[in-house]
Design brief:
Layout lengths: L3 H19 L11 E6 L2 E6 L13 H20 L2 E7 L8 E9 L5 H12 L14 H13 L3 E4 L3 H19 L2 H9 L1 E2 L9 E2 L7 H13 L3 H13 L3 E7 L4 H20 L3 E4 L2 H4 L1 H11 L4 E9 L16 E2 L7
Parallel strand pairs: 1-11, 6-7
Antiparallel strand pairs: 1-2, 2-4, 3-4, 5-8, 8-10, 9-10
Helix pairs in contact: 1-2, 2-3, 2-9, 3-9, 4-9, 5-8, 5-11, 6-7
The structure holds flavin mononucleotide (FMN).
Flavin mononucleotide binds next to helix 2.
Length: about 325
């Protein structure tokens, strides 16, 4: 009797487990803009543009970065299961939403480091609280840089006080500009959730430190109030208290660069988790085109900024919900989505 069907069922179950780890990736407003198709020995990753954020991310740049993080999680989870993968990025010029095809084959057993990175997928959360002033050792900064480089991404640690001050003032300026736009506030409010919400996407108040009452009011106040000044001051305090500010950058600014930036970001976030570091995003200035060129300048010649981070030691984030895996899986033949 052939064992082929059993083997295929086993592989499909393995790949579903791997996708369940991929969806723990971070995404802007926790929109989770991805879909997966599991075929016979491969996984396809598609952008879910119904979950785009047209105001804050009109070109789907951050959407593609988030999908890149999910792709990195997928690759790390495959290795932890003892699989090797061959990734074809943007395999189909006629289907722009197909971001990657990952062909899976048996590989060597995972190393201890590969296992640790995979465990970090589950425990990693954006850590929105303030950090202590304990500095991040140079060798750990170098390790984060190496991980970004493995994915072809540059990790620019802002070493001088002048660079830090410049980034913080760009964050504050971006906060003012974004919050003064009612369309930005409306979009953010749509993804703002109360602490007792049943929604499996969006950002609940408790993830960003709001109590139950404040979390119920947040959706309304976000929509109607320009909180630019308070947000700018809050972000300034958070950034000032963070021992390490860093910008992830690429050499170009195409969808392929965005996907790779996401893979680099994903690997840096997992490495940071392994090292016991807390990480949060300072992305507003990268989201405002005129300010983004200033962030590019902080990185130096030939760098295009993609993500700004604050990094340090502090309370772990509590995490945000995810949709069940069944909600992100497309069945049917490859390419039917
Ligand atoms: C591309 C990208 C941009 C983001 N930008 C911001 C940001 O500017 N400010 C912020 O507080 N969080 C930002 N986030 C973090 C998300 O809010 C967070 O990942 C999401 O809520 C899911 O939570 P988790 O990271 O704990 O899983 C960003 C995440 C990604 C992937």
């Amino acid at each position: 009797m052939s064992h082929e069907p059993d083997r295929r069922t086993q592989l499909t179950q393995d790949l579903q487990r791997v996708v369940a780890l991929a969806v723990l990736a971070p995404s802007s407003h926790n929109a989770q803009p991805w879909r997966f198709h599991i075929g016979g020995g491969f996984v396809e990753l598609r952008a879910d543009r119904l979950r785009a954020l047209p105001v804050v991310d009109p070109d789907d740049r951050e959407l593609t970065i988030a999908c890149g993080c999910a792709l990195l999680n997928l690759r790390v989870a495959l290795r932890a299961e003892g699989f090797d993968s061959v990734v074809t990025r943007l395999p189909s010029p006629s289907e722009r939403s197909l971001l990657a095809r990952v062909d899976v084959r048996p590989g060597s057993p995972p190393t201890a480091d590969e296992r640790r990175l995979c465990e970090a997928i589950v425990t990693r959360h954006t850590a929105f609280a303030p950090y202590s002033t304990v500095t991040v050792a140079d060798e750990i900064v170098a390790r984060l840089g190496n991980d970004a480089a493995l994915e072809g991404v540059r990790f620019h640690a802002l070493g001088s006080e002048a660079q830090r001050v410049a980034l913080v003032s760009l964050v504050m300026e971006a906060d003012h500009r974004q919050w003064s736009d009612p369309r930005f506030r409306r979009e953010l409010a749509e993804w703002t959730r109360s602490n007792d919400s049943d929604a499996r996407d969006g950002v609940p108040g408790n993830a960003v430190g709001l109590d139950n009452v404040a979390s119920h009011l947040a959706r309304f106040t976000t929509r109607v109030l320009d909180k630019g000044t308070n947000t700018a001051l809050h972000d300034r305090d958070l950034a000032d208290a963070s021992p390490l500010l860093a910008v992830l950058a690429t050499s170009g600014d195409t969808p392929l660069d965005w996907l790779c930036a996401g893979e680099g970001l994903g690997r840096v976030l997992l490495r940071a988790e392994v090292e016991g570091l807390a990480v949060a995003f300072l992305n507003p200035p990268v989201e405002v085109p005129e300010l983004r060129t200033e962030v590019d300048r902080l990185c130096g010649e030939g760098s295009t900024s993609q993500i700004a981070l604050r990094i340090g030691y502090g309370p772990a984030g509590i995490g945000t919900p995810r949709r069940p895996v069944a909600d992100v899986l497309d069945d049917g033949p490859a390419g039917s989505a």
